[in-house]
Amino acid sequence: MNRYKQCVILTVAAVLLPCVPACGSEKGDSGAVKAQQPVTGIDWRVDGITVDGTTRHAPATARLRIDEDGRAAGNLGCNRFSARATVDGDRITIGDLRTTKMACDRDRMDFERALARALTTGTLTARTDAAKLTLTDGDGDRVHLSRSTPE
């Protein structure tokens, strides 16, 4: 092989070798980062919960609000509640609930117990999409919420 061909081959190799990792089989990322919308300071309507793969629709009164100062409050479907909340990025932890003690029909009370359990079983992962919020616990159970519209 003459010196000219060796020089061309080395030059081509030097130019193409840095590109090899970009030619792999993994899907590329556009580099765009989708910003997570804030969850604090917003009145959220609870649309329903999914527990063990079964989705239950929420009573119209079910609400949640988490303020920036760490206060959470709302309505579980029958009774109002308040609690301490910690928000760290997309992780939310809601402490023990303090609730009123009203009695409602059985379906609302069953939903209320399931929602209270879902909100307080540990750290929840928050995912926002437009005007929707989903809180997912470590077992995969989810609380589905929507931004409340002013009345």
From TrEMBL:
Keyword match Signal: yes
Segments forming domain DUF306: 37-144
| UniProt keyword terms in alphabetical order | Signal
Listed InterPro entries: DUF306_Meta_HslJ, HslJ-like_sf, Hsp_HslJ-like
A Pfam family assignment: META
What is the residue range of the signal peptide feature? 1-24
Protein name in the entry: META domain-containing protein
Q: Which organism is it from?
A: Streptomyces actinomycinicus
